[in-house]
């Protein structure tokens, strides 16, 4: 057992887990095939070869929508009565979110038992030639141990990064593979051409195992089709789910793009049911009806940090609803465009039923609170704020223009953009991972983001776009807490300071409702959820 932070068994495990982090970015060398054979060694050490070979796996890769597709898939099969295991990444608040059994995060007691079972055996058997696994590889191996020991009927695995060399790809005979929409992300690891990226994702395809994808750019689809042909794989292409099949209900995950993920999930579940001999007459083809269990799974699915709306509960009751966070972990150009579209439409939805439907992810916010937030906010002027960060390997010149233009096309203009470093640090995993002190934080990346934003604003103003006057009297703009305050943006040395400024602004501007879009990084979304909840 490792020595722990605050001495609790759980914190001790997190300290041990943190010791496996070898880099400050998710894009590890291991994702380029760096000794992928080691993953197979770890499987052997833990005697997981046979359990993995017997596991009825649904394996999903892609650039966008992997987590949502896996969430829909798990929810459908759980509604069909199966004992489900779901492995996703990253986590937002607690590492146990990555391992879900029957739709719930694994409990602390089970997590600790399986964690130390794996960690201690690997520590004992590894050496210089076979070192301890890196962070993500360990978590993937842990997922296999958990699902094997819990004897799940189905294991749904979301690829962490890429596909071919991802730790989840030790599965040799999945029941079905899915590939979600492909785009440009993690190019420094996966390649700078869409064909290269598609080739990495197609690395999860296996001989004669059905594969299902969605419409893709021509360059990507050509690679998928070629790879499928080489492996004798039937490649099925599905279209977005027809909303009419839900019998008047709405998907559990918000946003029009989710109908494509839902269509893929329905096809994955249908194929899994057929290939495991479970189907009978439950579901044939997507025509005029869906089985009731499928509808239930699609409409009750929940996933934190994707198109999630959270009214801030720290403000006093008469101001409740004056500060609302719109959270979405979009971090690629395509997903940011989708996020911007969702935000623009969401802030315009005044109808009470629509407002309530936006809140399925967190039952602790009662209908009464949501109604009050909607009712009071509707009587006030609204102002939109952007709270943003992204990893330094991403190009803000690709991300920010897409976000700004899509919002502007829908008549939404941000009064202020706030740039902050993530609170959670990459070299420590913790239930409340402590940030570095403000004086030690390197803000050079946030200043880069700020300059990119200010330059964009100048271009839009030069093109005649109507931008809200940052000095307007409607909102008092006291930004003394910020490190660098420009006309349309500010950099804060920490997220808590930015949240404090937002909360103070609510108190100082009683007639204004603040609608804050938090995006660019799932880590940032998780950090905000920690503070707000």
Automatic annotation (TrEMBL):
SUPFAM superfamilies per the UniProt record, alphabetical: MurD-like peptide ligases, catalytic domain, MurD-like peptide ligases, peptide-binding domain
GO MF assignments: ATP binding; metal ion binding; tetrahydrofolylpolyglutamate synthase activity
Binding site for Mg(2+): 89, 158, 186
Origin superkingdom: Eukaryota
Enzyme Commission number, as recorded: 6.3.2.17
Keyword set includes NADP: no
Cofactor field: a monovalent cation
Pathway info: Cofactor biosynthesis; tetrahydrofolylpolyglutamate biosynthesis
GO cellular component: cytosol; mitochondrion
GO biological process: one-carbon metabolic process
Catalytic activity: (6S)-5,6,7,8-tetrahydrofolyl-(gamma-L-Glu)(n) + L-glutamate + ATP = (6S)-5,6,7,8-tetrahydrofolyl-(gamma-L-Glu)(n+1) + ADP + phosphate + H(+)
Cofactor binding, note field: A monovalent cation.
Signal peptide: none
Annotated ATP binding sites: 306, 328
Keyword terms, alphabetized: ATP-binding, Ligase, Magnesium, Metal-binding, Nucleotide-binding, One-carbon metabolism
Family named by the database record: Belongs to the folylpolyglutamate synthase family.
Cited function: Catalyzes conversion of folates to polyglutamate derivatives allowing concentration of folate compounds in the cell and the intracellular retention of these cofactors, which are important substrates for most of the folate-dependent enzymes that are involved in one-carbon transfer reactions involved in purine, pyrimidine and amino acid synthesis.
Name assigned to this protein: Folylpolyglutamate synthase
Organism: Quillaja saponaria
């Amino acid at each position: 057992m490792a020595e722990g932070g605050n001495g609790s068994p759980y914190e001790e495990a997190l300290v041990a887990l943190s010791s496996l982090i070898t880099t400050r970015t998710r894009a590890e060398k291991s994702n380029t095939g760096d000794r992928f054979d080691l993953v197979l060694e770890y499987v052997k050490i833990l005697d997981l070869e046979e359990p993995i070979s017997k596991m009825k796996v649904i394996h999903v890769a892609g650039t966008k929508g992997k987590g949502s597709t896996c969430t829909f898939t798990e929810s459908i099969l759980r509604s069909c009565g199966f004992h489900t295991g779901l492995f996703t990444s990253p986590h937002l608040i607690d590492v146990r979110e990555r391992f879900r059994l029957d739709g719930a995060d694994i409990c602390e007691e089970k997590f600790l038992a399986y964690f130390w079972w794996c960690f201690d055996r690997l520590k004992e058997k590894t050496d210089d030639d076979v070192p301890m696994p890196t962070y993500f590889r360990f978590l993937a191996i842990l997922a296999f141990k958990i699902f094997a020991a819990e004897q799940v009927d189905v294991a749904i695995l979301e690829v962490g990064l890429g596909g071919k060399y991802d730790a989840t790809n030790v599965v040799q005979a999945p029941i079905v593979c899915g590939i979600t929409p492909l785009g440009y992300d993690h190019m420094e690891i996966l390649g700078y051409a869409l064909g290269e990226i598609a080739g990495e994702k197609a690395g999860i395809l296996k001989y004669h195992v059905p594969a299902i994808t969605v419409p893709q750019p021509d360059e990507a689809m050509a690679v998928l089709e070629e790879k499928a042909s080489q492996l004798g794989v039937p490649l099925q292409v599905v279209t977005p789910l027809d909303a009419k099949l839900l019998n008047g209900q709405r998907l559990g995950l918000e946003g029009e793009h989710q109908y494509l993920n839902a269509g893929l999930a329905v096809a994955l579940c249908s194929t899994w049911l057929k290939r495991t001999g479970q189907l009978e007459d439950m579901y044939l083809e997507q025509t005029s009806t869906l089985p009731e269990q499928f509808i239930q799974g699609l409409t009750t699915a929940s996933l934190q940090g994707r198109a999630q709306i959270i009214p801030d509960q720290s403000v006093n009751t008469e101001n409740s609803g004056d500060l609302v966070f719109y959270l979405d972990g979009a971090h690629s150009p395509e997903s940011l465009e989708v996020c911007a579209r969702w935000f623009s439409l969401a802030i315009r939805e005044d109808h009470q039923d629509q407002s309530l439907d936006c809140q399925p992810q967190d039952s602790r916010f009662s209908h009464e609170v949501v109604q009050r937030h909607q009712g009071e906010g509707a009587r006030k002027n609204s102002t939109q704020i952007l709270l943003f960060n992204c990893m330094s390997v991403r190009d803000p010149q690709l991300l920010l223009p897409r976000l700004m233009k899509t919002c502007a096309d829908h008549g939404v203009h941000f009064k202020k953009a706030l740039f902050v470093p993530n609170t959670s640090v990459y070299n420590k995993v913790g239930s409340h991972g402590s940030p570095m002190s403000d004086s030690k934080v390197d803000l050079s990346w946030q200043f880069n983001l700020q300059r990119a934003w200010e330059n964009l604003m100048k271009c839009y103003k030069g093109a005649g776009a109507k931008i809200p006057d940052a000095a307007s009297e409607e909102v008092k703009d006291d930004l003394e807490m910020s490190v660098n305050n420009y006309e349309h943006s500010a950099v804060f040395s920490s997220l808590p300071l930015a949240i404090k400024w937002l909360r103070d602004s609510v108190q100082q501007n009683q007639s204004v409702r603040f609608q804050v879009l938090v995006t660019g990084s799932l880590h940032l979304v998780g950090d905000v959820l920690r503070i707000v909840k």
